[in-house]
Write a sequence for this structure.
């Protein structure tokens, strides 16, 4: 069983929802990435998504673009990112780790060389934004053969047929991007989400993570009412860039804790918000 | 002769092309493919498209014998395909008319575009005005500065020009931003992409066209792909010289990779990061190239060479003085290549240069470069 599957099964037993933070490797400084990853785990994260910086992040909004630019200033490439994963794995064998990025750095390394190096480093899953299933059947098989889950995206615009196709070739979890638009966009449409998630559930037994537009405890809690996992990226990165790099570790912990608590209150059935409709 | 039947159903030219986009765009691309296939086979659509090309654009553009330039070079006869005489001054409008008609049929009230030199932006703004559509054009801030005249043209045509500050602040970054806009506004918006589409005239003939993204070259190569005795030569921007690294010659000096939704030749570093490009012509200043050119290079059906900024500027001035035609700096790269090849070719050979656009937009750049040399 993969680390990702194991984590989701354990969570389901406890009726808990997964918290999945995203940070960009190398932002704000390469030396801070592993300490930040550890801080995310200490604050109650279940799975980590680590962004691989790319010069042309077409699907990302300004916040994640800026974080990628800061990392690229330090020359952080895919090899460096795998080095950080290896360092993180030195004392954390439990937390599932997913790399997220674009196809070109992987193709530049070579898809086979990449999956081999990623397995050695301790990567559990990979999300390649511009690798839709049709273009990466071979890559997905290479990854699976190395126990790496190829994780695919679904969007509000995905058709029912598309949902079935994507559900068939993905593993680990499915990542539903809850908004039309780039990462970090402002408005989360909960009614659309409530309508779409059951359709995806009907097509797959994989856990469903939801990202794009979640930035605090309240939005996380409301998303978790239908999803198995909430993914937080831009909101977290804004927290990292809001102050000095030296205390970024402390800031991400205090940012994530209330979100973790809100998700856990759901498991115990506590009333969480007076504004609940 | 083997039929040219590319691309396949999912847009592949051999290993190149394809659909490498984020999930949000998949449905929009399916919708576009369906609408395009319907329009392609719809006689009413084709009739309207032809009418517009004739009465609004002024096609067909003439093929002109550059007599004085031919005499100066002393070899092959140099002909010029006068795409610079089209309405808006370049080949770009042949594409934007068709795409705008498609957008109208798909009931999209808003069109967006990316632009480098501004010619595609102007052609998009023009057809948006013609069909009453809202228009937003993304342009790198460095290009906004060096192509100010085209920025003003887009503004008077009613388009909103958005300067893009990210990355290298040129064409590739404008494309990134246009894709972000499309992902965000996919229900209301049609993305009129500015590169590589469509068609158009045969002894020993060599076709020469400049290649940035490759649209004008693909337009003139396409009808000749099966005429294997016609040599096809694409001319990339060698900038300050291929050996300096400051150039935009992705086919001559790049390697395959994935960018902007397709697999193609890219200028990139060992980490797969896209590198910054340089060319005196904003329209060639792009680190990738249309995937059909990548395939034509590998299959050796077309050959690709590169011409430096200085060679292109010299050809620019030569065509102005010999023929009374002011070429776009992009097209001047093709003229430079013709001037290199003509002298060693027999007098009954023909060189056909695709003069993809006129140079009015480049006066500022040419004046600046000439002043430096005085």
């Amino acid at each position: 069983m993969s680390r990702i599957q194991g984590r989701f099964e354990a969570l389901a037993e406890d009726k808990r929802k997964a918290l999945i933070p995203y940070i960009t490797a190398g932002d704000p400084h390469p030396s801070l990435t592993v300490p930040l990853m550890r801080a995310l785990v200490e604050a109650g994260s279940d799975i980590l998504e680590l962004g691989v910086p790319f010069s042309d992040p077409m699907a990302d909004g300004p916040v994640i673009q800026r974080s990628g630019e800061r990392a690229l200033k330090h020359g952080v490439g895919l090899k460096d990112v795998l080095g950080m994963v290896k360092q993180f794995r030195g004392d954390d064998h439990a937390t599932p780790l997913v790399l997220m990025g674009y196809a070109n750095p992987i193709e530049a390394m070579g898809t086979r060389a990449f999956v081999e190096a990623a397995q050695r480093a301790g990567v559990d899953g990979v999300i390649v934004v511009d690798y839709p299933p049709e273009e990466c059947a071979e890559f997905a098989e290479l990854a699976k053969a190395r126990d790496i889950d190829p994780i695919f995206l679904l969007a509000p615009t995905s058709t029912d047929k598309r949902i079935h196709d994507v559900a068939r070739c993905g593993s680990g979890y499915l990542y539903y991007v809850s908004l039309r638009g780039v990462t970090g966009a402002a408005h989360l449409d909960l009614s659309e989400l409530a309508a779409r998630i059951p359709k995806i559930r009907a097509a797959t037994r994989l856990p469903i993570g939801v990202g794009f537009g979640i930035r605090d405890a309240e939005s996380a809690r409301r998303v978790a009412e239908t999803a198995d996992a909430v993914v937080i990226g831009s909101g977290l990165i804004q927290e990292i860039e809001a102050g000095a790099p030296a205390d970024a570790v402390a800031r991400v912990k205090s940012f994530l804790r209330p979100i973790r608590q809100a998700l856990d209150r759901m498991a115990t059935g506590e009333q969480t918000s007076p504004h609940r409709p | 002769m083997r039929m040219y039947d590319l691309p396949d159903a999912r847009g592949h030219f051999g290993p190149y092309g394809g659909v490498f986009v984020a999930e949000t765009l998949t449905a929009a691309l399916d919708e576009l493919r369906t609408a395009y296939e319907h329009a392609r086979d719809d006689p009413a659509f084709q009739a309207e498209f032809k009418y517009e090309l004739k009465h609004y654009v002024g096609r067909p553009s003439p093929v002109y014998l550059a007599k004085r330039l031919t005499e100066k070079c002393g070899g092959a006869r140099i002909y010029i395909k006068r795409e610079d005489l089209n309405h808006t001054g370049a080949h770009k409008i042949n594409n934007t008319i068709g795409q705008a008609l498609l957008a109208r049929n798909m009931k999209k009230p808003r069109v967006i575009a990316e632009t480098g030199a501004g010619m595609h932006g102007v052609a998009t703004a023009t057809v948006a005005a013609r069909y009453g559509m809202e228009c937003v054009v993304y342009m790198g801030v460095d290009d906004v500065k060096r192509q100010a005249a085209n920025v003003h043209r887009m503004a008077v045509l009613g388009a909103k020009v958005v300067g893009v500050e990210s990355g290298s602040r040129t064409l590739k970054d404008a494309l990134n931003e246009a894709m972000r806009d499309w992902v965000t506004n996919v229900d209301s918006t049609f993305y009129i992409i500015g590169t590589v589409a469509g068609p158009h005239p045969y002894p020993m003939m060599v076709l020469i066209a400049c290649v940035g993204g490759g649209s004008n070259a693909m337009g003139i190569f396409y009808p000749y792909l099966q005429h294997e005795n016609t040599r096809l030569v694409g001319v990339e921007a060698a900038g300050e010289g291929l050996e300096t690294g400051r150039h935009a010659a992705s086919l001559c000096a790049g390697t395959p990779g994935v960018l902007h939704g397709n697999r193609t030749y890219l200028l990139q570093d060992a980490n797969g990061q896209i590198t910054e490009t340089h060319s005196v012509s904003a329209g060639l200043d792009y680190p990738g190239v249309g995937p059909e050119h990548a395939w034509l290079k590998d299959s050796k059906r077309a050959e690709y060479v590169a011409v430096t900024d200085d060679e292109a500027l010299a050809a620019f001035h030569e065509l102005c003085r010999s023929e009374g035609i002011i070429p776009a700096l992009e097209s001047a790269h093709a003229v430079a290549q013709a001037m290199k090849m003509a002298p060693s070719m027999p007098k009954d050979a023909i060189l056909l240069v695709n003069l993809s656009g006129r140079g009015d937009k480049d006066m500022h750049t040419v004046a600046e470069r000439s002043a430096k040399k005085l």
Summary: The interface with chain B takes residues 53-61, 65, 69, 72, 77-79, 102-109, 129-132, 134-135, 152-159, 162, 166, 177, 180-182, 185 of chain A (CB under 8 Å). The domain at 3-263 of chain A is CATH 3.20.20.70 (TIM Barrel). Residues 248-268 of chain A form the longest helix (21 residues).
